[in-house]
């Protein structure tokens, strides 16, 4: 139905006000650039954004997003402001497909929580597809629906203090990580539907610092981090029955051929994935089914349709999104935080980098020779001006005798940005999220840079 124009009520933001009357299984697709703000409000009916229900009468302010407000029945939506694009579209096919997958996952969770076998696990879903296929959207919907579902089966959830599932969301996309700053992979328990403004819950995430926007910079290091994360998650499931039943939802990058395909297969193996959801990619679906069949495992490959509301993000938008994610880490999504600029003694900290550049192929070497460049070699870096504007990962642990394997397996406590290196005074000026001493003296460098 066409929108109607309203006059702004007292207390509402100034600007255009439009009211949309959505039909059942339709969605309102909205695009808002980073330099604009739009407020949405549910006036009547029911509606959700990526699985998170909108409270009736409550307002959400959107900026720098491309999202869709969906309703299963009908809804009246008010838009205050001037979005870059705003239109209604039918979305039943994609959303019904996502709901059917959620229903299948629920059955696995129920079976896992009621069994006495410690080896029976809940669903472990890996969402794959090309760039801008809507992978993050599907992950948000699956996690939000899981949180909204009742987990009171056999009293296990009640005994654990939960009345709903708490799945773990894993983001392996180092270029466009949706939870932690770019250059990282992370895992975080999702105990509430993913808020369209605040995003994923950021409390106590398990983070590993890779330091690059593409895994192609050092695939061996990337694989080592995924394996380290998998070991920690496996231990968590051993200690927590409800966590084992709730399972994992894993987001991946949009690189699906060549080395990217190899990294997908590695993630399936390392994280013990049993369901691979492929979004709108016939060739990849066929490849993965053939691979699973040759391995003789129990991995199920399902194809999902791509939502018609998925928007292509150009290189500039992605770069701005990465910069905004780093800025949000230091200043908050609403600039509500006050980061701290401090100077540290260069001699008190150790900066490392994993790998020493590209390893030459054996075919390019003399007959019988092999490359000695180890992509997992941990090399110390001097405190020079080359580090200025570098984003460094602060690793857990402070033992000066840590070996290469320890540095490769240590989670990340946070990040800092080097603003200036004063070699004459032996000082390094950094921007850190809060005042006080850093939690560790082990810093990991990559190619990530940022200008405040």
From TrEMBL:
Protein residues bound to ATP: 27, 66, 132-137
Entry coiled-coil feature ranges: none
One Pfam assignment: Clp1
Protein origin, superkingdom: Eukaryota
Keywords for the protein's UniProt record, in alphabetical order: ATP-binding, mRNA processing, Nucleotide-binding, Nucleus
Main localization category: nucleus
Biological-process GO terms, alphabetical: mRNA 3'-end processing; tRNA splicing, via endonucleolytic cleavage and ligation
InterPro entries from the UniProt entry: Clp1, Clp1/Grc3, Clp1_C, Clp1_C_sf, Clp1_N, Clp1_N_sf, CLP1_P, P-loop_NTPase
UniProt domain Clp1 N-terminal: residue ranges: 21-112
HAMAP family registered for this protein in UniProt: Clp1
Function noted in UniProt: Required for endonucleolytic cleavage during polyadenylation-dependent pre-mRNA 3'-end formation.
Protein name (database record): Protein CLP1 homolog
